Amino acid sequence: MPVYRQWSVILLSASLFITCLLMAVHPLATLQAGVRGLAIWWDVLFPSLFPFFVISELLLGFGIVHGIGTLLDPLMKPLFRVPGCGGFVAAISCASGYPIGAKLTAKLWQQKLLTREEGERLVAFTTSSDPIFLIGAVSVGFFHNPSIAVVIVLSHYLGALLIGLLMRFHAPHAPASSSPGGQGQAGWREALLAMHQARLEDGRPFGEMLSDSVKSSLRLIIVVGGLVVFFSVLLESLSKSGLMQWLYKCANIVLTGAGMPTALGDAIVGGIFEVTLGTSSAGAVSGVPLVYKAAAAVFVLSWGGLSVHAQITSILNDTNLRYPPFLLARAVHSVISPILLLLMWKPLMGNEETVQVFQSLWSVSRNPVPELVAYTPLIFAIVLSALVLLSLLARFFFRLLQRPE
User: Fold this and answer.
1) Per the UniProt record, which residue ranges are transmembrane (predicted)?
2) Which of 19, 172, 226, 296 has the most CB atoms in a 10 Å sphere around its CB?
3) What is the pLDDT of residue 181?
């Protein structure tokens, strides 16, 4: 065993032992933290993620993902160097949030629709939060200010788009997967053929496919819930022990160097571990300009938290996709998105009409998340339709360029 692996095992074992001791010293706080993590999983993650897990499995089994992927090849391959099926992953990830992008990427790799490098590019920019959480939980719930929703959503998703464009340079000499898409080659006929062929290769009856989808999705959602509870307990144990003070001091040094208020240190450190804790802490900070609080929240959302990182690695564990490219993408995304927010703040938030529109959509006196959940399929349909339209336009222009003079 290499030396670095030996040290990593020793450090991990020591960390787990210390965590167990802290849990034994603070049993009541540990129990309360576990209950909070379980409530987040049951009230938010389970109802918002589980249906999409099941539906995505069914769409794969019926070959619909393969057909849509064929249509999206002319757009996704030139821009992001991933097959067209990556566009479907991007659309459903945009609507439902992490970690569904990693789950679908792993499925596509297992079906040999992606190479390792293409999978690493895809999971790097499709791991993003969902608009329901950005608008309902963060803007309205934590910040009590619906007007900041537009700038938070734009900075987060534009940052993800830039990550996708940057990740196309990852492994530049790696071979690409073969598909019928090509640049401007595939149309509706090829898409239907790809969908039919995929359905024949799967061959399972609908009842068996539905049962397998539910079983697979339940296993994954239970893993997600367990990791949320674990990191909630871990963070509470570290806070009770006083060890978090060292991390707060390090965060304050970084914030001072970046010209940001040091009062955001607690939100940054909490967000490094868990998204909900970091964003809620950023919204609760007093005496700090709103623009900096929003930038801290976008940093946390784009980083994803170690809890989400653990979810992604658990999903990718069954593939040969590597974690370091994903880690680098999250780190870059967490820097790009706050910069975009600071650049867009004055043009968007300085417009009184924009502020009034978003202020009138939701009242801060009620929780808008339940009513926003109903719009999740609509968000998915809109994003996917936009991608298909752009791909068809790209196919048309490619044909114009290839037409002999």
Assistant:
1) 7-29, 49-72, 79-102, 122-143, 150-171, 218-238, 250-273, 285-306, 327-345, 372-398
2) 296
3) 47
Neighbouring residues of 186: CB distance < 8 A, sequence distance ≥ 6: 70, 71, 73, 74, 84, 180, 395
Peptide bond into 99 cis (omega under 30): yes
What pLDDT does 104 receive? 92
Question: 77, 194 in Cβ contact below 8 A?
Answer: no
What DSSP character marks residue 140? I
d(CA 383, CA 370): 21
The angle formed by the CA atoms of residues 276, 280 and 285, to the nearest 5 degrees, is 150
- Looking at residue 272, what is its pLDDT? 92
DSSP 8-state class, residue 174: S
How far apart (Å, rounded) are the C-alpha atoms in residues 253 and 201? Answer: 57
Residue 119 contacts residue 319 (beta carbons within 8 Å): yes
Burial of 206: CB neighbours in 10 Å, binned 0-12, 13-18, 19+: exposed
Residue 375 is classified by DSSP as: T
Interacting residues of 143 by C-beta distance below 8 A, sequence separation 6+? 282, 283, 290, 293, 294, 297
Residues in the chain, pLDDT under 50: 181-184, 364-365
Listed residue (92, 85, 90, 91) closest to 115, CA to CA: 85
| Rounded (to 5) percent helix, strand, coil in the chain | 80, 0, 20
Residue with tokens 């114009």: 400
Written as six digits, the tokens of 252 are: 């304050």
In tens, the pLDDT along 273-330 reads 889 888 988 998 988 999 999 999 999 999 999 989 999 999 998 899 999 999 999 9
The answer to whether 49 and 100 are in contact (CB under 8 A) is yes
Task: Specify the pTM.
Answer: 0.87
- What stretch of H or E contains 1? none
The pLDDT, as a whole number, for residue 108 is 92
Q: How many CB atoms lie within 10 A of CB 30?
A: 20
